[in-house]
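Exercise 3.2. Students should predict the tertiary structure of the chain below and write it as structure tokens, then compare their answer with the key that follows.

Predict this chain's 3D structure.
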Amino acid sequence: MTNNVDNRKGYIFSREEDGYCLLLYSGLDSVLTLPENYNGESYRIGECAFFANKKIASVVIPNGVAAIGAHAFTSCTALRSITLGTGITEISDCAFDNCTGIIEVVNNSPLDIRLGSEDNGLIAYHAKDIRSGESRLTEHEGFLFYPSNTEYGIVGYTGTLRHLTLPDAFCGEPYPILPRAFSCHEFLRGVTLGNGVTEIGESAFADCLLLEEVRLGNNTSTIGSRAFETCMSLERVILPESLRVIGSNAFSGCTCLTDIYYTGDEERFAGLEIGDGNHFLLSATIHYNYSEQ
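Answer key:
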């Protein structure tokens, strides 16, 4: 039986027979550190508490949280980093189901969490890294960066702008857009990539259903497979002469794509390595030697 519902700073708690429960988060923040306790006591995260929240990018669960309920974070597709405190002893089934964008799990709990495992609510099923300590996710001008191999790559965005201009550099260095970085972004309409963007990862902008225009920077060499898959509103793309590879299905499902503006000549475009499944790209009108000057 649930009673005494209390809403504090977007966190909706209740007192139940077995203790306090975080029922729901109604706030708008993208980077969250949950309350350490509630009324001085530990609590659990209830079933579906953050279900299908498309904005949350990073969550720190402190030591005062004891358990995570079923489907608590299911379909949080923007979630990139999750930090578990020392008090977590149970993660229920499917707590992180369909969290396809998770990159790191920072595990300070006693739970045995392994990459690719379906245990512990699928928390590490899609993850690329597990460690203890603190997150390596870094925020810069609303963009999230994460170390990949020897460089940082962009993995997400925490703001609300509909037209984005990505930085020309991060810490003075060029960088890639890592896989699924902006996938399923609900409001994105236009993207301009800075000249520091070296490549666009797999499914980086997939399922951005309102995206209409993309402008690549002058140093991008690779568009990964399915990078813009099912961007059904995409009409206009500007491609640089620096481009070398367009992966398979990079523009699959882009049914409104009508114009490609290429800064090189027709011969150079013909030399691009273009993977299968890019019918809509090749059917568009291609404008060669494009310049905005």
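Discussion points: Residues 113 and 119 are 8 Å apart (CA to CA). The first strand starts at residue 2 and ends at 8.
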